[in-house]
Write a structure and sequence with these properties.
This protein is an alpha/beta fold. It is built from 13 helices and 22 strands.
Length: 414
């Protein structure tokens, strides 16, 4: 271990990170070994490069963007609805549609310890977010007499808790052979001075690196090949927290397939032009989601000749990817975005400290950065009241009480 310690010290000295060994002499032999091995796995060059380059704010000029076409679900004729629905049902029935759930988050903002998907709503009867989503899948499986593969991406922090939760609840009555868990990657978090942070005196603080890691995580887990073997053609991708989102909406699936696009997304209308939600647009001729800080309120008010707003379609994390699109993206590395967050850390005295305000940078890949690798995207605007009730925290507009009320009111129609 002495030789390994020498190598680690040389690495840490090179990148000015020797503080990570500050409490080394206090550790057990096992803790020393684990810490050294963890340090040797870290790409310091990459994380420090991200720290430096992400300081620069990237703004998109109006010359780079143009409106992107979308279809309003509420404006579809009964004939079109039937046509799209029949197409979607055909693909579901033939076993060509699977579901991917992004469930790497913890319930921290809900004051809840554990994977966010295990958070239970006061529905009648009470159900966890995982069970609500599973019920959509079970319903389609029963209705169309098909086994629908369900892939669940977890983080390293909640992988075992998530699996145990499913086992304890008998997989909510769904065949466990149809459920596959896989893990996304981690990135070290870093403080405002460019220093990596300890979560314990023997452990470096890592965080999952965003939903955009989906593609490489699928490849690493050999699940792209698994999907091919299962003859899947389309995968619906969403988060875990929107209780009104049916992952097997035949109209959306049929609409996307009929559009001849390789990817599709559901959108909701941004009612307030001052809202900070990111919006869909074309950037340099390719589909993209743009940070609203790049847009003045005047741009948000622009309309076409019919009075339709040009830049008001917002992301609701409800995407459909063809398998060919997933395969393509599994070989592409997406850029990282920096987020400023509050995170507990080990201070110079070796004591865990909880900050009162943001203190660290977290680096994440976003799934929507994949859109620019395709010529077009099928956008379907849906009714916010009928299909959007995510649970974010207890105090904002997207809280458990509102989500529960919406779900109870609409559950017989979903």
């Amino acid at each position: 271990m002495e030789n390994k310690l020498k190598i680690v010290k040389e690495i840490l000295k090179k990148y000015d990170q020797l503080h990570l060994l500050q409490f080394y002499s206090e550790l057990t032999e096992e803790q020393k070994s684990n810490l050294l091995n963890q340090i040797l796995k870290i790409n310091f060059e990459e994380i420090l490069y991200l720290y430096e380059t992400s300081k620069k704010n990237v703004y998109v000029s109006t010359e780079e963007i143009e409106p992107i076409k979308y279809c309003d679900k509420s404006a579809l004729t009964p004939i079109k609805i039937k046509q799209f629905s029949n197409t979607g049902i055909k693909y579901i029935k033939s076993g060509q549609v699977g579901v991917i759930t992004l469930a790497g988050g913890q319930g921290t903002r809900l004051g809840f310890k554990g994977p966010k998907g295990t958070f239970t709503l006061e529905t009648n009867p009470p159900m966890s977010l995982f069970e609500i989503l599973c019920n959509y899948i079970k319903s389609a499986s029963s209705k169309y007499k098909v086994q629908i593969p369900w892939y669940i991406m977890t983080s390293t922090n909640n992988y075992f808790d998530t699996r145990n939760f499913f086992e304890q609840n008998n997989y909510f009555g769904y065949n466990p052979k149809n459920i596959t868990f896989f893990v996304q990657d981690n990135m070290p978090i870093i403080d405002v001075n460019g220093k990596l942070v300890l979560s314990e005196i023997y452990k470096i603080n890592l965080a999952s690196n965003g939903n955009g890691n989906l593609f490489s995580a699928l490849k690493k887990s050999n699940l792209v090949l698994d999907m091919e073997n299962k003859k899947l053609k389309w995968l619906f991708v969403s988060g875990i927290d929107n209780v009104l989102l049916n992952p097997l909406d035949s109209i959306f699936i049929g609409y996307t397939i009929s559009s001849k696009c390789k990817i599709g997304s559901k959108t909701i209308f941004k009612e307030n032009p001052k809202d900070l939600s990111w919006i869909f647009a074309k950037k340099n001729g390719k589909p993209a989601i743009i940070d609203c800080e790049n847009f003045t309120e005047e741009i948000s008010k622009l309309t076409d000749k019919k009075g339709n707003y040009l830049y008001r379609e917002t992301n609701m994390l409800a995407h459909l990817f063809s398998l060919s699109a997933l395969k393509k993206m599994s070989d592409i590395t997406l850029p990282y975005h920096r987020a400023f967050r509050k995170n507990p850390f080990i201070n110079y005295e070796g004591v865990k400290q909880v900050p009162d305000e943001p203190n660290i940078y977290k680096f994440e890949q976003f799934i929507f950065d994949s859109f620019e690798y395709f010529d077009n995207i099928a956008l379907l605007r849906v009714n916010k009241e009928n299909e959007f009730a995510p649970i974010k925290d207890f105090n904002g507009p997207y809280n458990p009480e509102i989500a529960t009320e919406k779900y109870e009111r609409l559950k017989n129609t979903l």
